[in-house]
Amino acid sequence: MATHAVHESTRQRIQLDKHLPVDHHLNQVYRFGAGLMGLVLVAFGILGLINKIGFFDTRGDQVAGLNTNGTLSVLSICIGLLLFVGMVIGGNFASTLNMVVGIAFILSGFVNLGLLDTEYNFLAFRIQNVLFSFIFGVVLMFFGMYGRVGSALPHDNPYWRARHPDLVEQEPRQPVGPAAGQKALARDESPRPPESGR
Protein backbone atom coordinates (compact mmCIF):
# COMPACT_ATOMS: atom_id res chain seq x y z
CA MET A 1 0.00 0.00 0.00
CA ALA A 2 2.81 2.41 0.91
CA THR A 3 4.65 1.62 -2.32
CA HIS A 4 1.50 2.31 -4.33
CA ALA A 5 1.08 5.67 -2.59
CA VAL A 6 4.68 6.59 -3.42
CA HIS A 7 4.12 5.68 -7.06
CA GLU A 8 0.95 7.79 -7.17
CA SER A 9 2.69 10.83 -5.69
CA THR A 10 5.55 10.36 -8.13
CA ARG A 11 3.13 10.43 -11.06
CA GLN A 12 1.49 13.57 -9.73
CA ARG A 13 4.84 15.37 -9.44
CA ILE A 14 6.16 14.33 -12.84
CA GLN A 15 7.65 17.16 -14.89
CA LEU A 16 8.69 16.86 -18.51
CA ASP A 17 12.24 18.10 -19.18
CA LYS A 18 12.36 19.98 -22.50
CA HIS A 19 16.10 19.21 -22.82
CA LEU A 20 15.44 15.46 -23.01
CA PRO A 21 14.43 14.13 -26.45
CA VAL A 22 11.60 11.86 -25.26
CA ASP A 23 10.13 14.49 -22.95
CA HIS A 24 10.42 17.18 -25.61
CA HIS A 25 8.61 15.01 -28.18
CA LEU A 26 5.78 14.16 -25.77
CA ASN A 27 5.40 17.80 -24.78
CA GLN A 28 5.09 18.82 -28.42
CA VAL A 29 2.37 16.22 -29.04
CA TYR A 30 0.37 17.34 -26.00
CA ARG A 31 0.67 21.01 -26.98
CA PHE A 32 -0.22 20.37 -30.62
CA GLY A 33 -3.24 18.25 -29.67
CA ALA A 34 -4.61 20.82 -27.24
CA GLY A 35 -4.03 23.71 -29.64
CA LEU A 36 -5.50 22.01 -32.70
CA MET A 37 -8.63 20.74 -30.97
CA GLY A 38 -9.06 24.04 -29.15
CA LEU A 39 -8.91 25.88 -32.46
CA VAL A 40 -11.65 23.65 -33.89
CA LEU A 41 -13.95 24.41 -30.96
CA VAL A 42 -13.29 28.15 -30.95
CA ALA A 43 -13.91 28.40 -34.70
CA PHE A 44 -17.14 26.40 -34.37
CA GLY A 45 -18.31 28.57 -31.48
CA ILE A 46 -17.55 31.85 -33.26
CA LEU A 47 -19.41 30.72 -36.39
CA GLY A 48 -22.40 29.84 -34.22
CA LEU A 49 -22.43 33.26 -32.53
CA ILE A 50 -22.11 35.06 -35.86
CA ASN A 51 -25.36 33.39 -36.98
CA LYS A 52 -27.10 34.87 -33.90
CA ILE A 53 -28.91 31.67 -33.01
CA GLY A 54 -31.08 31.76 -29.88
CA PHE A 55 -29.30 30.69 -26.70
CA PHE A 56 -31.74 27.97 -25.68
CA ASP A 57 -33.26 27.25 -29.06
CA THR A 58 -33.63 23.46 -29.02
CA ARG A 59 -34.00 23.38 -32.81
CA GLY A 60 -30.79 25.31 -33.38
CA ASP A 61 -29.24 25.90 -36.78
CA GLN A 62 -26.57 24.31 -38.98
CA VAL A 63 -22.95 25.44 -38.68
CA ALA A 64 -20.22 23.52 -40.51
CA GLY A 65 -22.50 20.50 -40.78
CA LEU A 66 -23.30 20.46 -37.06
CA ASN A 67 -26.34 21.74 -35.22
CA THR A 68 -25.78 24.48 -32.67
CA ASN A 69 -27.38 27.28 -30.68
CA GLY A 70 -26.03 30.19 -28.63
CA THR A 71 -25.39 28.09 -25.53
CA LEU A 72 -23.43 25.41 -27.40
CA SER A 73 -21.45 28.11 -29.23
CA VAL A 74 -20.38 29.86 -26.02
CA LEU A 75 -19.61 26.53 -24.35
CA SER A 76 -17.47 25.50 -27.32
CA ILE A 77 -15.48 28.73 -27.15
CA CYS A 78 -14.91 28.34 -23.39
CA ILE A 79 -13.66 24.76 -23.74
CA GLY A 80 -11.53 25.76 -26.72
CA LEU A 81 -9.89 28.53 -24.68
CA LEU A 82 -9.28 26.05 -21.88
CA LEU A 83 -7.45 23.81 -24.33
CA PHE A 84 -5.41 26.82 -25.45
CA VAL A 85 -4.35 27.24 -21.81
CA GLY A 86 -3.21 23.62 -21.87
CA MET A 87 -1.27 24.32 -25.06
CA VAL A 88 0.53 27.25 -23.41
CA ILE A 89 1.36 25.36 -20.20
CA GLY A 90 2.16 22.08 -21.96
CA GLY A 91 3.75 19.11 -20.25
CA ASN A 92 1.87 16.79 -17.94
CA PHE A 93 -0.87 19.40 -17.45
CA ALA A 94 -1.70 19.45 -21.18
CA SER A 95 -1.69 15.65 -21.30
CA THR A 96 -4.08 15.34 -18.36
CA LEU A 97 -6.30 18.14 -19.65
CA ASN A 98 -6.59 16.47 -23.06
CA MET A 99 -7.64 13.20 -21.45
CA VAL A 100 -10.16 14.79 -19.08
CA VAL A 101 -11.80 16.93 -21.78
CA GLY A 102 -11.80 13.95 -24.15
CA ILE A 103 -13.62 11.81 -21.60
CA ALA A 104 -16.07 14.67 -20.98
CA PHE A 105 -16.87 14.83 -24.70
CA ILE A 106 -17.55 11.09 -24.84
CA LEU A 107 -19.82 11.28 -21.79
CA SER A 108 -21.55 14.31 -23.32
CA GLY A 109 -22.22 12.26 -26.43
CA PHE A 110 -23.99 9.58 -24.41
CA VAL A 111 -25.97 12.08 -22.32
CA ASN A 112 -27.12 14.15 -25.28
CA LEU A 113 -27.96 11.00 -27.23
CA GLY A 114 -30.59 10.33 -24.59
CA LEU A 115 -31.85 13.92 -24.78
CA LEU A 116 -32.41 14.01 -28.54
CA ASP A 117 -35.92 15.14 -29.53
CA THR A 118 -36.79 16.09 -25.95
CA GLU A 119 -37.55 19.46 -24.37
CA TYR A 120 -34.33 19.16 -22.35
CA ASN A 121 -32.10 19.26 -25.42
CA PHE A 122 -30.79 22.72 -24.46
CA LEU A 123 -27.64 22.35 -26.59
CA ALA A 124 -29.69 21.63 -29.75
CA PHE A 125 -27.83 18.36 -30.35
CA ARG A 126 -28.63 16.20 -33.35
CA ILE A 127 -27.23 12.79 -34.22
CA GLN A 128 -24.32 14.38 -36.12
CA ASN A 129 -23.39 16.30 -32.97
CA VAL A 130 -23.39 13.07 -30.99
CA LEU A 131 -21.09 11.39 -33.50
CA PHE A 132 -18.82 14.43 -33.54
CA SER A 133 -18.68 14.41 -29.75
CA PHE A 134 -17.59 10.76 -29.74
CA ILE A 135 -14.96 11.25 -32.44
CA PHE A 136 -13.64 14.49 -30.96
CA GLY A 137 -13.39 12.91 -27.51
CA VAL A 138 -11.51 9.87 -28.77
CA VAL A 139 -9.03 11.97 -30.76
CA LEU A 140 -8.43 14.30 -27.82
CA MET A 141 -7.92 11.32 -25.51
CA PHE A 142 -5.39 9.92 -27.99
CA PHE A 143 -3.41 13.16 -27.82
CA GLY A 144 -3.51 13.06 -24.03
CA MET A 145 -2.63 9.38 -23.65
CA TYR A 146 0.12 9.37 -26.29
CA GLY A 147 3.32 8.05 -24.75
CA ARG A 148 1.66 7.87 -21.35
CA VAL A 149 -0.17 4.54 -21.32
CA GLY A 150 0.70 1.21 -22.87
CA SER A 151 2.49 -2.02 -22.08
CA ALA A 152 5.55 -1.33 -24.21
CA LEU A 153 6.70 2.14 -23.15
CA PRO A 154 10.47 2.65 -23.55
CA HIS A 155 12.48 2.79 -20.35
CA ASP A 156 13.52 6.40 -20.96
CA ASN A 157 9.84 7.43 -21.03
CA PRO A 158 9.15 9.76 -18.06
CA TYR A 159 5.86 8.06 -17.22
CA TRP A 160 7.42 4.59 -17.26
CA ARG A 161 10.18 5.83 -14.98
CA ALA A 162 7.64 7.38 -12.58
CA ARG A 163 5.74 4.09 -12.36
CA HIS A 164 8.87 1.93 -11.93
CA PRO A 165 11.24 3.86 -9.66
CA ASP A 166 12.74 0.60 -8.41
CA LEU A 167 13.71 -0.40 -11.98
CA VAL A 168 15.07 2.94 -13.11
CA GLU A 169 18.73 2.78 -14.03
CA GLN A 170 21.16 4.54 -11.75
CA GLU A 171 22.75 6.69 -14.43
CA PRO A 172 20.83 9.91 -15.21
CA ARG A 173 19.08 10.41 -18.52
CA GLN A 174 21.32 12.30 -20.90
CA PRO A 175 19.97 15.62 -22.19
CA VAL A 176 20.46 16.93 -25.69
CA GLY A 177 21.09 20.38 -27.09
CA PRO A 178 22.60 23.28 -25.09
CA ALA A 179 22.06 21.55 -21.75
CA ALA A 180 24.12 18.58 -22.90
CA GLY A 181 26.91 20.87 -24.09
CA GLN A 182 27.01 22.69 -20.76
CA LYS A 183 27.24 19.42 -18.85
CA ALA A 184 29.99 18.14 -21.11
CA LEU A 185 31.90 21.42 -20.70
CA ALA A 186 31.55 21.21 -16.94
CA ARG A 187 33.00 17.69 -16.99
CA ASP A 188 35.94 18.84 -19.13
CA GLU A 189 36.69 21.76 -16.84
CA SER A 190 36.42 19.75 -13.63
CA PRO A 191 39.79 19.34 -11.83
CA ARG A 192 41.50 16.04 -12.46
CA PRO A 193 43.67 14.17 -9.96
CA PRO A 194 47.40 14.52 -10.64
CA GLU A 195 48.97 11.63 -12.44
CA SER A 196 51.21 9.52 -10.27
CA GLY A 197 54.84 9.39 -11.40
CA ARG A 198 56.40 6.13 -12.42
UniProtKB/TrEMBL annotation:
Transmembrane segments: 29-50, 71-90, 96-115, 127-146
Pfam families, sorted: DUF4383
Keyword Cytoplasm: no
Biased composition (Basic and acidic residues): 185-198
Residue ranges of the region described as Disordered: 168-198
Keywords: Membrane, Transmembrane, Transmembrane helix
Superkingdom in the source lineage: Bacteria
Name assigned to this protein: DUF4383 domain-containing protein
Organism: Streptomyces cadmiisoli
Lineage summary: Bacteria, Bacillati, Actinomycetota, Actinomycetes, Kitasatosporales
